[in-house]
Amino acid sequence: MDAHELTAAYALDALDPDEAEAYERHLSQCEECREQLAELNETAAALAFGAVAPAPPTRLRTSILEAAAAERTNVVPLLRRRWVSRGLAVAAAAAACIAVGLGVSLSQSSHPPQSWTVAVGPKGKATISVSGLSSAPQGKTYEAWVIPAGHAARPAGLFSGSTSGMHLGGTVPPHAVVAVTLEPAGGSKKPTTTPIFSTST
Amino acid sequence: MNRQLAHLSDEALVALAARSEQSALAELYDRYGRSAYGLALRVLRDPELAEDAVQEAFLTVWRSAARFVPERGKASTWILTLVHRRAVDAVRHEQRRRADSLDRATEPSVEGAEEDAFLRLQRERVQAALRHLPDAQREALELAYYGGFTQSELAERLGQPLGTIKSRMFGGLSRMREVLSEPGTETSWTPTS
Question: In total, how many domains does chain B have?
Answer without folding.
Answer: 2
